[in-house]
């Protein structure tokens, strides 16, 4: 794992604290239940970013006697935790929205609240794009989950700002908590998506179809001398893709020659795919199944 990933994760905690401060101040000057809900979600953002940083540090540890395949799945645990925190935030927002609907009141100093919340939203918007870009480039589930989480916060804040514009115009104070409740539903849906994707990683879900297609292509192009490859299996663990398959070679081929083919395939994977771990089981031609990957 690059130092860039860890630096971005650490910076995410600091950005979260800054956003929380701005949103808390916006709620304090307005008394808006929607802004209170927005600030409550930002508390979850800070906790989730800290969890992501911890998970990235754990996943960067090398394999040891008790974890011989490494610690990469720690990132998925962080993403699951983040999904749970998003759900908690959504339920908390719903509760505050309900209480505000029962006792509605017009926000005080709405312009000042909008400016503070707008600054926090702009900061969050820029930072979530950074997290998503770096997370995808580094294949980090923790950073991607953190970016998606912050994106829901941006959506929440935009909705709140929209409500601030409409409440003074309509003179309807119930609009403030009603808007907070509607946005909470979107937050809840995003939290469910985070948990679903992360559980797939913990359950050793296969690599995406486009990645599997590239794996088959690499084997086909660089296994000259072999007959076929079958029983291809893949799984993701954080940024690592594990690839396993059986390689069928002529029965009279020497072990050294078969080993050279395996080395050539592994070298091709190393150049084309970052962080791929390949396991190849060599078999004689009598084990051919005449299906799977055809060697060109």
Describe it.
The protein is α+β, with helices and mostly antiparallel strands and 296 residues long. The chain folds into two domains: 3-202, Alpha-lytic protease prodomain-like; 209-294, Alpha-Beta Plaits (2-Layer Sandwich). It is built from eight helices and four strands. Helix 2 (33-59) runs antiparallel to helix 5, helix 3 (74-102) runs parallel beside helix 5 (141-170) and helix 4 (110-137) packs antiparallel against helix 5 (141-170). The longest helix is centred in the middle third of the chain and has 30 residues, at 141-170.
Element layout with pairings:
Elements: H1 3-30, H2 33-59, H3 74-102, H4 110-137, H5 141-170, H6 175-202, H7 209-222, E1 228-237, E2 240-249, H8 255-272, E3 276-284, E4 293-294
Parallel strand pairs: 2-3
Antiparallel strand pairs: 1-2, 1-4
Helix pairs in contact: 1-2, 1-4, 2-3, 2-5, 2-6, 3-5, 3-6, 4-5, 5-6, 7-8
Number of domains: 2
* CATH top level class name of the largest domain: Mainly Alpha
Q: What is the makeup of the main sheet? A: 4 strands, mixed
Strand adjacency order, main sheet: 3-2-1-4
Portion in helices: 55-70%
How far apart are the first and last residues' alpha carbons, in Å? 34 Å
Return the string of H and E elements. HHHHHHHEEHEE
Please tell me the overall pLDDT: 81
Can you name the CATH architecture of the largest domain? Up-down Bundle
Number of strands: 4
CATH topology of the largest domain: Alpha-lytic protease prodomain-like
Q: Given the structure, what is the number of helices?
A: 8
CATH superfamily of the largest domain: Cation efflux protein transmembrane domain
Q: Which radius of gyration do the C-alpha atoms yield? A: 25 Å
The proportion of residues in beta strands is 5-15%
SSE-based structural type: alpha+beta
The parts where pLDDT drops under 50 for at least 5 residues are none
Shape: elongated
Protein name: Cation transporter
Main location: membrane
GO molecular function, one term: cadmium ion transmembrane transporter activity
Domain Cation efflux protein cytoplasmic: 208-285
């Amino acid at each position: 794992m690059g130092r860039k990933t860890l630096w971005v994760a650490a910076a995410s905690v600091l950005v979260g604290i800054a956003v929380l401060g701005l949103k808390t101040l916006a709620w304090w000057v307005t008394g808006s239940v929607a802004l209170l809900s927005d600030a409550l979600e930002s508390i979850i953002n800070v906790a989730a970013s800290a969890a992501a940083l911890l998970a990235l540090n754990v996943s960067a540890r090398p394999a040891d006697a008790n974890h011989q395949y490494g610690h990469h799945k720690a990132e998925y645990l962080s993403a699951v935790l983040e999904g749970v925190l998003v759900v908690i935030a959504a339920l908390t927002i719903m509760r505050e929205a309900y209480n505000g609907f029962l006792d509605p009141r017009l926000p005080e100093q709405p312009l000042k609240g909008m400016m503070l919340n707008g600054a926090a939203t702009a900061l969050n918007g820029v930072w979530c794009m950074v997290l998503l870009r770096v997370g995808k480039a580094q294949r980090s589930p923790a950073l991607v989950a953190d970016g998606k989480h912050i994106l829901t916060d941006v959506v929440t804040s935009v909705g709140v700002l929209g409500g601030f514009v409409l409440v003074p115009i309509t003179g309807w104070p119930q609009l403030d908590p009603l808007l907070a409740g509607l946005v909470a539903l979107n937050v809840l849906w995003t939290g469910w998506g985070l948990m679903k994707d992360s559980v797939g990683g913990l359950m050793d879900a296969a690599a995406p179809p486009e990645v599997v297609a590239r794996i088959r292509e690499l084997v086909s192009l660089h296994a000259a001398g072999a007959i076929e490859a079958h029983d291809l299996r893949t799984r993701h663990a954080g940024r690592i893709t594990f690839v396993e398959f059986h390689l069928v070679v002529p029965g009279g081929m020497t072990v050294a020659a078969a080993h050279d083919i395996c080395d050539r395939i592994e070298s091709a994977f190393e150049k084309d795919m970052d962080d791929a771990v390949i396991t190849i089981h060599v078999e004689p031609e009598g084990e051919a199944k005449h299906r799977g990957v055809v060697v060109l």
